[in-house]
Amino acid sequence: MNTSDNSRPERGKTLVLVLTLLNTILVAAISALQVDASIRSSQANRDSQYYAIQVTGSLIQAGAQSDYDIKTFSTMLINSMESLASQYSAVQQQAAGDQQGFEAMTLESQILQARADRAKSLSILMTDPAYAPTSEQSNPDYSTYISDLYKQSNEIVLKQNVSSDAYHHWNSKSDSYVAVLTILAVAFFLLGVAQMTRPGLRLLFSIFAIVVMGIGSLWTLILLLF
Amino acid sequence: MEDSNAKGNRLDVWIAVLIALVSLTTALATWRTASLGSSAGDLIYQGFLDAVKFQANANEDWQQAYLDAGNARDYLMTLDSLAVQENSTDPASIEQAAQLRIYLLPGMESQATPLGTDPSYLTQEGWLNVQKQFNELEAQSSDLSSLDPLASFSKADSYYAEQRWLVVGTILIAISLFWLGLSQLSHLRSRVLILVLGVLVYGIGLVWSVGVEIVFFILRTGGL
Description:
The complex is a heterodimer of chains A (226) and B (224). With 226 residues, chain A is an all-alpha fold. Chain A contains seven helices and no strands.
């Protein structure tokens, strides 16, 4: 046995104590950071799921609205076409000398046109300047209509994606902090052994503990920065 | 020498009592911190239940509002076509319109009420005001007023905030336990110093934790 070890058995114990204190402070700070990351992860996860519920509702509303709007537009179109066909038939009846047929077809055309006119007045695709056809021959602006219809849903999906990304970010950080705490637990073990062993080995175990604490601190720094 | 040994033994007993006390406080603080997280989780769960119920009801109301709008549109179109028939010179058509008014229109009218019958349900542009009909349907669902997911989430955030601050106190108490343990094991001359450090950290941790509890209790009960 080394004679200097025997003569000064307490040598290096103060260093071990200081290192233990430092490690304790590190563990305390990282524990707090881990709890904070875990809470942030839970909140982001909650927001993400809440937005998912909202986007489902928004899509159902958009579906019901488009169903109504397209049905109103197609009703208007069908009645207009049938009115036109009746009008054409009336002209043919007149040309054939069938006055009664002409009058019946004309009345039929007027009835259908009245239905078409009402459908047109109720149709957002035909009366809203944002979507209405610019001329008699052109179609409504479907792409703008579809874009506006799903605008709210897309905005919520965007928020949901941001929350989902935040959840993964904080969840990953929380897991990493747990790994750092495990590393620092190893440092505690090494410092404990250093405290109990003879002075020569005490320094060696202290150096190992310092290296492990350095790795833990560096990892924490990386987690804090990114 | 004997006097010094006796002093050391008395200190050992005091440190043991302190360690027991701090251990109990640590357990209590850890339980409280965990229970706050659990309460926040319960509130989030409740918020989700409320959100799903609320959204399911809104989904039904939107479907119903647009179904009503479709009925109102068909009713208004039928009304206009009947007006043309009634103003025609064809007696058969006039008679048919009269029959339709008696046998068809009342049923359609009841399905189209109020969107197709009440002019206040028309927008400035002349469209059917589906949003107003939706609002009416939502107002009729009286049980919806108790569903407030955002209130549950906000309360959960308050528990999380308290948990955050309480963790600091719990960590301080746990640190003090470590130092008290060290002072019990240590044979160094600095034993008393380590003990004082442990007691000081414990005191700070305890005051901090109690302070956090009081502040959040006042905040939640609306005392501030």
